Amino acid sequence: MSDSAEWQPLRDELRRWTEAERKVKLWFRDDDAIEPTPALDRLLSLSDRFEVPMALAIIPGPTSEPLAECLAQKNRITATVHGWTHQNYAPDDTKKQELGLHRPKEIVLDELHRGFDKLKALYPSQFVPLLVPPWNRIDDALLPHLAPFGYRAVSVFGLAKQAPIGLINTHIDIMRWHGVRGGLPHAEIIERLVEELQNRFDGNEEPIGVMTHHLAHDDLAWGFVETLFDETAGHAAIEWRPVGDFIH
Fold first, then answer.
1. Dihedral, CA atoms, 106, 108, 111, 112, nearest 10 degrees?
2. Which residue of 59, 102, 140, 245 could cross-link 89, Cys pair, CB 3.0 to 4.6 Å?
3. Residues 234-243 pLDDT 10s
4. CA gap 136, 72 in Å, rounded
């Protein structure tokens, strides 16, 4: 266990869950996989060491056999569709988006269809029919068209709202994206995680999603993932679940 006092609020909240004999469901999503890298190896080794299942959001356009071969024996890893090329088509003065209506809808949907089919073929036993939109953004007008391609759910960021397809969202982002890139201070992430746990204790049954980006991690980010698993894997109040468990 970590000795750091900044993790104490999480321990205190989990003790409350344990005393109430309750469990919370967590799932782990890592974005932007394309090929084997030392950073991906490091992430996979943490999954193995702590026996935590992970969903990799794989960018279908540029990915190929090497990644599939790297993951083939990793039975805790699932493959999900991360857009098509993770390319931004939004104007410079707006938030980045690949899956918007900045291009003809038919083109965007065709890419999502191809991405689904490509990853399903590359990962016959590890694929789950989940779309992870790049930058966690997708135009609502596209959502009703996903099911015919085989998609069963979408994963963006924040508490789930009503949608024409299942939502399995992430709620904890460990990264600082503005200014100097890298992991957020641990105390800041823990504060957010405790808020999500309190929300679940009060009755929201949505699983808590933790989002990472292995290619962007610095020592602070890697340290958070390792300590999080150390604190929670095997904990009486925590169930780390594969994302496929939440897809109906």
1. -100
2. 102
3. 999 999 999 9
4. 27
Centre a 10 Å sphere on the Cβ of residue 124 and count the other Cβ atoms it contains.
10
Identity at 145, one-letter amino acid code: H
Q: Do residues 24 and 17 lie in contact, with contact meaning Cβ atoms separated by under 8 Å?
A: yes
pLDDT in tens, 29-53: 999 999 999 999 999 999 999 999 9
Confirm or reject CATH 3.20.20.370 for domain 5-246, answering yes or no. Answer: yes
DSSP string for residues in 116-185: HHHHHHH-TTTEEEEE--GGG-B-GGGGGGSGGGT--EE--BSS----SSEE--B-EE-EE-SSS-EEPP
Global pTM reads 0.96
Domain boundaries, given as residue ranges, for the chain: 5-246
